[in-house]
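Example (one chain per record):
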Amino acid sequence: MAGSLNDLLYFIRVRLDKKFKILGVLMEGSLVTWMEIPFDDFMKLELRIGKVEEATLIPGSKNLLKLIVDFGSEKRQSVAGLLRYYKPEELVGKKFVFILNLQRRKLMGIESQCMVLAAEDNEGNVILICPEKDIAAGSRIR
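Predicted structure:
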């Protein structure tokens, strides 16, 4: 099931080069220090709301889905390891937060042109980050 930005309970992790890099963790009541980046680096990220138009299984993969996402002025495809957490039909028609300006890469021969953001708690539950209220596809996250 999709969660809102307020549902981030323990930590956010961002998938980069098939490995997860932990940005911050709340463990046993104490906060492990987050890696700080300059504000200018954060502003380089192109974060936008995208509406999933299609979600399909990738043949030969046990975890990857191909998403076709509408950003208002353009459509892109994303390859995401979500099959353990979501059925393809659960994603279609819903809006989530995406990063648009990560370097593109191929997974299972399919180019991923953006990345959907997700949160995971310390029990391995994963939710996709979605807007609290309805907002137009392509809206910029600031």
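Caption: The domain at 3-26+38-130 is CATH 2.40.50.140 (OB fold (Dihydrolipoamide Acetyltransferase, E2P)).
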